[in-house]
Design a protein that fits this description.
The protein is built from 14 helices and 17 strands.
Protein backbone atom coordinates (compact mmCIF):
# COMPACT_ATOMS: atom_id res chain seq x y z
CA UNK A 1 0.00 0.00 0.00
CA UNK A 2 1.33 3.43 -0.97
CA UNK A 3 0.66 5.45 2.17
CA UNK A 4 2.40 8.44 0.60
CA UNK A 5 -0.48 8.59 -1.85
CA UNK A 6 -2.99 8.11 0.98
CA UNK A 7 -1.57 11.15 2.74
CA UNK A 8 -2.09 13.36 -0.34
CA UNK A 9 -5.84 12.80 0.03
CA UNK A 10 -5.84 14.97 3.18
CA UNK A 11 -5.57 18.60 2.06
CA UNK A 12 -5.16 20.04 5.58
CA UNK A 13 -1.83 18.27 6.01
CA UNK A 14 -0.24 20.13 3.08
CA UNK A 15 -0.16 23.49 4.83
CA UNK A 16 2.65 25.27 6.67
CA UNK A 17 2.37 27.15 9.97
CA UNK A 18 5.03 29.58 11.23
CA UNK A 19 7.09 28.60 8.17
CA UNK A 20 7.15 24.97 9.36
CA UNK A 21 5.38 22.08 7.63
CA UNK A 22 2.40 20.97 9.69
CA UNK A 23 3.23 17.96 11.84
CA UNK A 24 -0.14 16.69 13.08
CA UNK A 25 0.07 14.23 15.97
CA UNK A 26 -3.35 14.81 17.52
CA UNK A 27 -5.48 12.33 15.62
CA UNK A 28 -6.82 10.83 18.87
CA UNK A 29 -8.55 14.18 19.48
CA UNK A 30 -9.88 14.46 15.94
CA UNK A 31 -8.76 13.05 12.63
CA UNK A 32 -8.39 15.03 9.43
CA UNK A 33 -10.77 14.37 6.54
CA UNK A 34 -9.89 13.01 3.11
CA UNK A 35 -10.99 15.03 0.10
CA UNK A 36 -13.73 12.54 -0.77
CA UNK A 37 -15.47 13.19 2.56
CA UNK A 38 -15.34 16.96 2.02
CA UNK A 39 -16.59 16.55 -1.55
CA UNK A 40 -19.50 14.29 -0.55
CA UNK A 41 -20.76 16.79 2.02
CA UNK A 42 -20.38 19.70 -0.38
CA UNK A 43 -22.28 17.84 -3.10
CA UNK A 44 -25.12 17.12 -0.68
CA UNK A 45 -25.54 20.80 0.06
CA UNK A 46 -25.12 21.82 -3.58
CA UNK A 47 -27.51 19.33 -5.17
CA UNK A 48 -29.82 17.80 -2.56
CA UNK A 49 -30.08 19.73 0.73
CA UNK A 50 -33.44 18.30 1.73
CA UNK A 51 -34.75 16.76 4.92
CA UNK A 52 -35.16 13.02 5.25
CA UNK A 53 -38.21 10.81 5.86
CA UNK A 54 -40.66 13.67 5.39
CA UNK A 55 -41.51 15.27 2.06
CA UNK A 56 -42.77 13.57 -1.07
CA UNK A 57 -40.56 15.56 -3.44
CA UNK A 58 -37.56 14.12 -5.29
CA UNK A 59 -34.86 15.90 -3.29
CA UNK A 60 -36.19 14.53 -0.02
CA UNK A 61 -36.44 11.05 -1.48
CA UNK A 62 -32.84 11.29 -2.67
CA UNK A 63 -31.65 12.54 0.72
CA UNK A 64 -33.49 9.71 2.47
CA UNK A 65 -31.96 7.08 0.18
CA UNK A 66 -28.45 8.42 0.77
CA UNK A 67 -29.02 8.74 4.52
CA UNK A 68 -30.38 5.22 4.95
CA UNK A 69 -27.69 3.77 2.68
CA UNK A 70 -25.12 4.97 5.21
CA UNK A 71 -26.99 3.17 7.99
CA UNK A 72 -26.55 -0.03 6.02
CA UNK A 73 -22.87 0.85 5.47
CA UNK A 74 -22.38 1.22 9.21
CA UNK A 75 -24.18 -2.06 9.85
CA UNK A 76 -21.74 -3.87 7.58
CA UNK A 77 -18.76 -1.93 8.93
CA UNK A 78 -19.34 -3.06 12.52
CA UNK A 79 -20.97 -6.38 11.56
CA UNK A 80 -24.29 -5.63 13.26
CA UNK A 81 -27.10 -8.10 12.64
CA UNK A 82 -29.85 -5.61 11.75
CA UNK A 83 -29.92 -2.08 10.34
CA UNK A 84 -32.33 -1.11 13.13
CA UNK A 85 -29.48 -1.69 15.59
CA UNK A 86 -27.65 1.36 14.18
CA UNK A 87 -28.68 4.71 15.68
CA UNK A 88 -27.28 8.00 14.40
CA UNK A 89 -26.24 10.34 17.23
CA UNK A 90 -24.14 13.49 17.46
CA UNK A 91 -21.16 11.57 18.83
CA UNK A 92 -19.96 9.07 21.41
CA UNK A 93 -20.91 11.37 24.29
CA UNK A 94 -24.55 11.64 23.21
CA UNK A 95 -24.67 7.91 22.50
CA UNK A 96 -23.53 6.98 26.02
CA UNK A 97 -25.87 9.56 27.55
CA UNK A 98 -28.65 8.00 25.52
CA UNK A 99 -27.91 4.58 27.00
CA UNK A 100 -27.52 5.88 30.56
CA UNK A 101 -30.80 7.79 30.40
CA UNK A 102 -32.54 4.90 28.70
CA UNK A 103 -31.52 2.44 31.42
CA UNK A 104 -32.39 4.71 34.34
CA UNK A 105 -35.82 3.19 34.78
CA UNK A 106 -34.26 -0.25 35.30
CA UNK A 107 -31.72 0.79 37.95
CA UNK A 108 -32.46 0.39 41.63
CA UNK A 109 -30.89 1.91 44.71
CA UNK A 110 -27.76 0.05 45.75
CA UNK A 111 -27.09 -1.51 42.35
CA UNK A 112 -23.53 -1.21 41.10
CA UNK A 113 -22.16 0.38 37.93
CA UNK A 114 -18.57 -0.64 37.18
CA UNK A 115 -16.43 1.81 35.20
CA UNK A 116 -12.86 1.16 34.10
CA UNK A 117 -10.25 3.55 35.44
CA UNK A 118 -9.02 4.37 31.94
CA UNK A 119 -12.40 5.83 30.99
CA UNK A 120 -13.05 9.11 29.21
CA UNK A 121 -15.37 11.49 31.08
CA UNK A 122 -18.07 10.66 28.52
CA UNK A 123 -18.23 7.15 30.00
CA UNK A 124 -18.07 8.36 33.61
CA UNK A 125 -20.19 11.48 34.06
CA UNK A 126 -23.48 10.15 32.55
CA UNK A 127 -23.32 7.18 34.93
CA UNK A 128 -22.62 9.44 37.90
CA UNK A 129 -25.69 11.52 37.07
CA UNK A 130 -27.87 8.41 36.74
CA UNK A 131 -26.43 6.96 39.95
CA UNK A 132 -27.32 10.16 41.84
CA UNK A 133 -30.87 9.99 40.48
CA UNK A 134 -31.44 6.29 41.22
CA UNK A 135 -29.27 5.57 44.26
CA UNK A 136 -27.02 3.25 42.28
CA UNK A 137 -23.31 3.14 43.16
CA UNK A 138 -20.29 3.79 40.94
CA UNK A 139 -17.27 1.55 41.47
CA UNK A 140 -14.05 1.96 39.44
CA UNK A 141 -12.14 -1.02 38.09
CA UNK A 142 -8.59 -0.33 39.31
CA UNK A 143 -5.42 -0.41 37.26
CA UNK A 144 -2.43 -2.70 37.70
CA UNK A 145 1.07 -1.25 38.04
CA UNK A 146 1.61 -1.41 34.27
CA UNK A 147 -1.40 0.81 33.55
CA UNK A 148 -3.65 -1.99 32.31
CA UNK A 149 -6.89 -2.93 34.01
CA UNK A 150 -6.39 -5.19 37.03
CA UNK A 151 -8.22 -8.31 35.86
CA UNK A 152 -8.18 -9.99 39.27
CA UNK A 153 -9.73 -6.90 40.84
CA UNK A 154 -12.31 -6.88 38.02
CA UNK A 155 -13.29 -10.48 38.73
CA UNK A 156 -13.63 -9.66 42.42
CA UNK A 157 -15.89 -6.69 41.64
CA UNK A 158 -18.04 -8.89 39.40
CA UNK A 159 -18.86 -11.02 42.45
CA UNK A 160 -20.98 -8.05 43.56
CA UNK A 161 -23.15 -8.62 40.46
CA UNK A 162 -23.08 -5.14 38.90
CA UNK A 163 -26.03 -4.05 36.82
CA UNK A 164 -23.89 -2.21 34.25
CA UNK A 165 -20.26 -2.49 33.18
CA UNK A 166 -18.99 0.54 31.23
CA UNK A 167 -15.66 -0.01 29.47
CA UNK A 168 -13.22 1.66 27.09
CA UNK A 169 -12.15 -0.40 24.09
CA UNK A 170 -8.98 1.70 23.80
CA UNK A 171 -7.82 4.36 26.28
CA UNK A 172 -7.92 7.79 24.68
CA UNK A 173 -5.20 9.09 27.02
CA UNK A 174 -2.69 6.22 26.97
CA UNK A 175 -3.58 4.15 23.91
CA UNK A 176 -3.91 1.00 26.03
CA UNK A 177 -6.00 -1.73 24.40
CA UNK A 178 -8.35 -3.42 26.82
CA UNK A 179 -9.05 -7.18 26.41
CA UNK A 180 -12.58 -6.13 25.63
CA UNK A 181 -14.04 -9.47 24.54
CA UNK A 182 -12.78 -11.18 27.70
CA UNK A 183 -14.13 -8.35 29.87
CA UNK A 184 -17.54 -8.53 28.17
CA UNK A 185 -17.77 -12.30 28.54
CA UNK A 186 -16.96 -12.10 32.25
CA UNK A 187 -19.59 -9.38 32.71
CA UNK A 188 -22.18 -11.53 30.93
CA UNK A 189 -21.69 -14.35 33.43
CA UNK A 190 -23.19 -12.13 36.16
CA UNK A 191 -25.91 -10.69 33.92
CA UNK A 192 -24.44 -7.19 33.61
CA UNK A 193 -25.30 -4.86 30.71
CA UNK A 194 -22.11 -3.92 28.83
CA UNK A 195 -21.57 -0.45 27.36
CA UNK A 196 -18.41 0.04 25.29
CA UNK A 197 -16.80 3.36 24.37
CA UNK A 198 -15.23 2.54 21.00
CA UNK A 199 -14.26 6.07 19.96
CA UNK A 200 -10.52 5.36 19.96
CA UNK A 201 -10.84 1.87 18.48
CA UNK A 202 -13.06 2.27 15.46
CA UNK A 203 -10.47 3.75 13.06
CA UNK A 204 -7.78 1.24 14.00
CA UNK A 205 -9.46 -2.13 14.61
CA UNK A 206 -11.96 -4.38 12.87
CA UNK A 207 -15.07 -4.02 15.02
CA UNK A 208 -17.43 -7.01 15.06
CA UNK A 209 -20.18 -6.31 17.57
CA UNK A 210 -21.70 -9.76 17.14
CA UNK A 211 -18.40 -11.40 18.00
CA UNK A 212 -17.90 -9.05 20.95
CA UNK A 213 -21.45 -9.77 22.17
CA UNK A 214 -21.66 -6.38 23.87
CA UNK A 215 -25.03 -4.82 24.57
CA UNK A 216 -24.04 -1.33 23.39
CA UNK A 217 -21.10 0.09 21.43
CA UNK A 218 -20.59 3.82 20.76
CA UNK A 219 -18.21 5.75 18.50
CA UNK A 220 -17.74 9.07 16.69
CA UNK A 221 -17.28 9.92 13.03
CA UNK A 222 -14.59 12.53 13.62
CA UNK A 223 -12.23 9.92 15.10
CA UNK A 224 -12.39 7.87 11.88
CA UNK A 225 -11.74 10.51 9.18
CA UNK A 226 -15.36 11.59 9.04
CA UNK A 227 -17.12 14.82 10.09
CA UNK A 228 -17.66 16.17 13.55
CA UNK A 229 -21.19 16.11 14.93
CA UNK A 230 -22.01 12.55 13.91
CA UNK A 231 -21.72 9.38 15.94
CA UNK A 232 -23.13 5.90 16.18
CA UNK A 233 -24.86 4.00 18.93
CA UNK A 234 -25.04 0.28 18.25
CA UNK A 235 -27.24 -1.81 20.48
CA UNK A 236 -28.53 -5.36 20.43
CA UNK A 237 -32.08 -4.98 19.18
CA UNK A 238 -33.85 -5.98 22.41
CA UNK A 239 -31.50 -3.90 24.54
CA UNK A 240 -31.87 -0.90 22.25
CA UNK A 241 -35.64 -1.26 22.00
CA UNK A 242 -35.95 -1.17 25.79
CA UNK A 243 -34.33 2.27 26.11
CA UNK A 244 -36.40 5.26 27.13
CA UNK A 245 -35.73 7.95 24.49
CA UNK A 246 -33.40 10.72 25.63
CA UNK A 247 -34.85 13.27 23.19
CA UNK A 248 -38.48 13.45 22.10
CA UNK A 249 -40.30 15.41 19.43
CA UNK A 250 -40.50 15.14 15.67
CA UNK A 251 -39.47 12.11 13.61
CA UNK A 252 -39.47 9.66 16.53
CA UNK A 253 -43.25 9.52 16.93
CA UNK A 254 -45.90 7.19 15.54
CA UNK A 255 -48.83 9.37 16.57
CA UNK A 256 -49.45 12.39 18.81
CA UNK A 257 -52.55 13.75 20.46
CA UNK A 258 -52.94 16.01 23.46
CA UNK A 259 -53.85 12.92 25.46
CA UNK A 260 -50.85 10.72 24.60
CA UNK A 261 -47.96 10.02 22.25
CA UNK A 262 -46.99 6.70 20.70
CA UNK A 263 -43.33 6.37 19.79
CA UNK A 264 -42.15 4.99 16.47
CA UNK A 265 -40.21 1.77 16.00
CA UNK A 266 -36.42 1.54 15.82
CA UNK A 267 -34.32 3.22 14.58
CA UNK A 268 -36.63 6.26 14.32
CA UNK A 269 -37.73 6.03 17.97
CA UNK A 270 -34.26 7.11 19.13
CA UNK A 271 -33.59 9.71 16.41
CA UNK A 272 -35.71 12.75 17.28
CA UNK A 273 -35.58 15.91 15.18
CA UNK A 274 -33.74 16.75 12.00
CA UNK A 275 -30.59 14.64 11.95
CA UNK A 276 -27.11 15.79 10.84
CA UNK A 277 -27.76 14.64 7.28
CA UNK A 278 -24.66 16.03 5.57
CA UNK A 279 -22.53 14.60 8.37
CA UNK A 280 -24.11 11.18 7.90
CA UNK A 281 -23.26 11.40 4.19
CA UNK A 282 -19.69 12.34 5.13
CA UNK A 283 -19.48 9.43 7.56
CA UNK A 284 -20.50 7.06 4.79
CA UNK A 285 -17.71 8.38 2.61
CA UNK A 286 -15.24 7.99 5.48
CA UNK A 287 -16.26 4.34 5.79
CA UNK A 288 -15.76 3.94 2.05
CA UNK A 289 -12.29 5.47 2.40
CA UNK A 290 -11.35 3.18 5.30
CA UNK A 291 -12.69 -0.02 3.81
CA UNK A 292 -10.74 0.49 0.57
CA UNK A 293 -7.59 -0.12 2.63
CA UNK A 294 -7.62 -3.59 4.23
CA UNK A 295 -7.69 -3.35 8.01
CA UNK A 296 -4.71 -5.67 8.37
CA UNK A 297 -2.58 -3.35 6.21
CA UNK A 298 -3.74 -0.28 8.12
CA UNK A 299 -2.95 -1.97 11.43
CA UNK A 300 0.50 -3.04 10.25
CA UNK A 301 1.33 0.48 9.08
CA UNK A 302 0.11 2.16 12.27
CA UNK A 303 1.71 -0.41 14.57
CA UNK A 304 5.11 0.10 12.97
CA UNK A 305 4.79 3.88 13.34
CA UNK A 306 3.64 3.68 16.94
CA UNK A 307 6.50 1.37 17.91
CA UNK A 308 8.94 3.77 16.25
CA UNK A 309 7.40 6.66 18.18
CA UNK A 310 7.58 4.74 21.46
CA UNK A 311 11.24 3.82 20.85
CA UNK A 312 12.27 7.34 19.90
CA UNK A 313 10.71 8.77 23.05
CA UNK A 314 12.17 6.02 25.24
CA UNK A 315 15.64 6.87 23.93
CA UNK A 316 15.36 10.52 24.98
CA UNK A 317 16.60 11.44 28.46
CA UNK A 318 14.23 13.20 30.86
CA UNK A 319 11.13 11.79 29.17
CA UNK A 320 8.58 10.01 31.38
CA UNK A 321 6.31 7.55 29.53
CA UNK A 322 2.96 6.28 30.78
CA UNK A 323 1.40 2.89 30.10
CA UNK A 324 3.54 1.95 27.10
CA UNK A 325 2.90 -1.54 25.68
CA UNK A 326 3.58 -3.20 22.34
CA UNK A 327 -0.12 -3.67 21.64
CA UNK A 328 -1.11 -0.06 22.34
CA UNK A 329 -3.27 1.64 19.74
CA UNK A 330 -2.65 5.04 18.21
CA UNK A 331 -1.17 7.12 21.05
CA UNK A 332 1.77 7.64 23.40
CA UNK A 333 1.48 9.62 26.65
CA UNK A 334 4.54 11.33 28.12
CA UNK A 335 5.91 14.24 30.11
CA UNK A 336 9.21 16.05 30.15
CA UNK A 337 10.52 15.43 33.65
CA UNK A 338 9.90 18.39 35.94
CA UNK A 339 8.19 20.50 33.25
CA UNK A 340 4.54 21.44 32.79
CA UNK A 341 2.87 19.63 29.91
CA UNK A 342 1.27 22.84 28.64
CA UNK A 343 4.68 24.52 28.29
CA UNK A 344 5.89 21.57 26.22
CA UNK A 345 2.85 21.69 23.96
CA UNK A 346 3.09 25.45 23.46
CA UNK A 347 6.74 25.30 22.44
CA UNK A 348 6.05 22.43 20.05
CA UNK A 349 3.15 24.37 18.54
CA UNK A 350 5.55 27.21 17.68
CA UNK A 351 7.25 24.65 15.41
CA UNK A 352 3.86 23.62 13.89
CA UNK A 353 3.88 20.35 15.83
CA UNK A 354 0.37 19.60 17.05
CA UNK A 355 0.01 17.33 20.07
CA UNK A 356 -2.47 17.21 22.95
CA UNK A 357 -1.69 18.45 26.46
CA UNK A 358 -3.84 18.25 29.58
CA UNK A 359 -5.93 15.66 31.38
CA UNK A 360 -7.43 14.31 28.12
CA UNK A 361 -10.93 14.18 29.64
CA UNK A 362 -9.62 11.43 31.93
CA UNK A 363 -9.06 13.19 35.23
CA UNK A 364 -9.56 10.06 37.37
CA UNK A 365 -6.82 8.36 35.34
CA UNK A 366 -4.49 11.32 35.87
CA UNK A 367 -5.17 11.07 39.62
CA UNK A 368 -4.30 7.38 39.52
CA UNK A 369 -1.03 8.22 37.73
CA UNK A 370 -0.41 10.96 40.33
CA UNK A 371 -0.04 13.65 37.70
CA UNK A 372 -2.11 16.73 36.79
CA UNK A 373 -1.83 16.06 33.08
CA UNK A 374 0.48 14.90 30.34
CA UNK A 375 1.35 15.26 26.68
CA UNK A 376 -0.06 12.87 24.11
CA UNK A 377 1.20 12.25 20.59
CA UNK A 378 -1.21 10.27 18.45
CA UNK A 379 -1.06 8.92 14.94
CA UNK A 380 -3.42 8.18 12.07
CA UNK A 381 -3.41 6.54 8.70
CA UNK A 382 -1.76 9.62 7.17
CA UNK A 383 1.09 9.83 9.70
CA UNK A 384 4.57 9.06 8.36
CA UNK A 385 8.04 8.53 9.77
CA UNK A 386 9.02 12.10 8.90
CA UNK A 387 6.25 13.39 11.20
CA UNK A 388 7.74 11.44 14.08
CA UNK A 389 11.28 12.56 13.29
CA UNK A 390 10.13 16.19 13.13
CA UNK A 391 8.34 15.74 16.44
CA UNK A 392 11.38 14.21 18.15
CA UNK A 393 13.66 16.95 16.80
CA UNK A 394 11.19 19.55 18.00
CA UNK A 395 10.98 17.93 21.41
CA UNK A 396 14.77 18.02 21.69
CA UNK A 397 14.65 21.77 21.05
CA UNK A 398 11.95 22.14 23.71
CA UNK A 399 14.10 20.27 26.20
CA UNK A 400 17.06 22.52 25.40
CA UNK A 401 14.91 25.55 26.17
CA UNK A 402 13.27 24.21 29.33
CA UNK A 403 16.02 22.15 30.94
Amino acid sequence: MDFTQVRTQFPTLAQTLNDYPLCYLDTAATSHKPQQVLDAMTQFYLKTNANVHRAAHQLSSQATREYEAVREQVRRFIHAKRREEVIFTHGTTEAINMVAHGLKKDLKSGQIILIDSLAHHANIVPWQVIAQETGAMIKPIPLAADGRLDLLAYETLLLEKPAIVALSHVSNALGILNPIQELIQKAKTVGAITVIDGAQAVAHLDIDVQQLECDFYAFSGHKMYGPTGIGILYGRFKALDSLTPLITGGEMIQSVSFEKTEFNVLPNRLEAGTPPIAEVIGLGEAITFLTHIPQTIRAEHESALLHYLQQQLANLPDIVLYGVHKDNIGAVAFNVYGEHHQDVGTLLDQQAIAIRCGHHCAMPLMQTLNIKGCCRASIGIYTNKQDIDNFVDGLKMVKDILL
